[in-house]
Q: What sequence folds into this?
């Protein structure tokens, strides 16, 4: 086969060896190679860009590549010291752990991400650990705040509870035992048998009086008494306060009584259980009737109705009556006097009697008392044979 005649390059063979051995061209539609002299064919591109090959340039380019590689390695080494990927989350935890006070609490999750900058953002995207840890730290801060507030709140609540507990003193103000709960009569006691006698016991004054045969009263070392009668005519037994007509009731303070009584036998044609007393100038004999051997409300007869009053949970009929009595008055030189009555419409056998409230009700009804001589717990009967016990019988003025 005949070989094609070779063309000599310009400048001869030597020139050929010092020039590029190959010429590369780039076409966006094709790629071709123009072989140097001695090749079988020659390709000529329609549009090409020539890049010359030069050993020195090639060497410099290689050097730059190597330097770039070293730089990349150096950057990689530096990168190992910075938080990346999953490590970013751990790094964020360390910095967030160092956060203090309100800052950590207010922006828990945000502080973890912000602390690592861009690395933290990547860590948040790629590594779940960083994001999860940040969330835990945020929760820790929130718990810290809650504990502080909770401690304060609990302290206040306990303080309030203690104050409420201290209100036991208010219970004590109630003033001792409910008289209705006392069922047992005191033991011992002193029996006084007479038609007309008086004395003191348990800091109170007692009196027994009868216009018939004698009866008896038993007094004790505590505010209590008992009485017995047997066809004694008009019989009275009582215990309470004696003032000897030196002050009006409003000058004596608030006057109250407590009582508890049990009846037996009969009380003749009339009977009163309650409070009894006298006032002077004007001369008034007065009654507060809470119970009777007869049917309540009793009617003393020949009285003037002065209305009603509601006191101590019950309704009382107010009556005014004029009398000359059977045994004279407590007022010197007076032979006829007035009687004031408060008669409870439904009987009761124990409780408190607010004596001052009855005095006020009488005053409102035009029934005026004078200076107080006495206020005493009473049993009065108009005959019969019976007895009564008062395990509680006390009158106070405060």
A:
């Amino acid at each position: 086969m005949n070989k094609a005649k070779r063309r000599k390059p310009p400048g001869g063979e030597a020139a050929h060896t010092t020039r590029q051995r190959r010429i590369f061209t780039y076409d966006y539609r094709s790629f071709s190679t123009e072989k140097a002299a001695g090749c079988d064919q020659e390709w000529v591109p329609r549009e090409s860009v020539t890049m010359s090959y030069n050993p020195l340039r090639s060497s410099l380019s290689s050097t730059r590549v190597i330097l770039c590689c070293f730089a990349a390695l150096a950057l990689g080494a530096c990168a190992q010291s910075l938080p990346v990927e999953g490590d970013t989350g751990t790094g964020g935890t360390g910095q967030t752990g160092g956060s203090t006070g309100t800052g950590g609490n207010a922006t828990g999750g945000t502080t973890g991400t912000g602390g690592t900058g861009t690395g933290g953002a990547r860590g948040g995207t790629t590594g779940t650990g960083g994001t999860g840890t940040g969330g835990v730290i945020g929760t820790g801060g929130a718990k810290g705040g809650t504990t502080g507030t909770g401690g304060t709140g609990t302290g206040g609540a306990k303080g309030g509870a203690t104050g409420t507990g201290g209100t036991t003193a208010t219970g004590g103000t109630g003033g001792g035992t409910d008289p209705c709960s006392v069922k047992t009569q005191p033991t011992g006691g002193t029996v006084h048998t007479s038609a007309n006698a008086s004395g003191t016991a348990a800091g109170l004054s007692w009196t027994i009086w009868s216009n018939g045969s004698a009866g008896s009263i038993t007094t004790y070392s505590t505010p209590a008494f008992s009485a017995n009668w047997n066809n004694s005519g008009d019989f009275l037994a009582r215990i309470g306060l004696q003032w000897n007509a030196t002050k009006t009731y409003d000058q004596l303070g608030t006057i109250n009584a407590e009582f508890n009584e049990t009846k037996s036998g009969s009380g003749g044609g009339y009977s009163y259980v309650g409070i009894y007393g006298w006032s002077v100038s004007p001369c008034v004999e007065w009654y507060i009737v809470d119970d009777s051997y007869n049917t309540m409300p009793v009617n003393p007869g020949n009285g003037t109705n002065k209305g009603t009053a509601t006191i101590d949970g019950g309704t009382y009929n107010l009556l005014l009556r004029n009398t000359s009595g059977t045994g004279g008055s407590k007022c010197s030189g007076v032979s006829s006097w007035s009687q004031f009555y408060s008669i409870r419409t439904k009987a009761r056998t124990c409780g408190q009697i607010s004596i001052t409230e009855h005095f006020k009700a009488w005053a409102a009804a035009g029934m005026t008392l004078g200076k107080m001589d006495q206020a005493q717990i009473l049993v009065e009967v108009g005959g019969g044979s019976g007895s009564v016990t008062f395990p509680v019988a006390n009158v106070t003025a405060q």
Q: What stands out?
A: The first helix runs from residue 12 to 18. The mean pLDDT is 71.
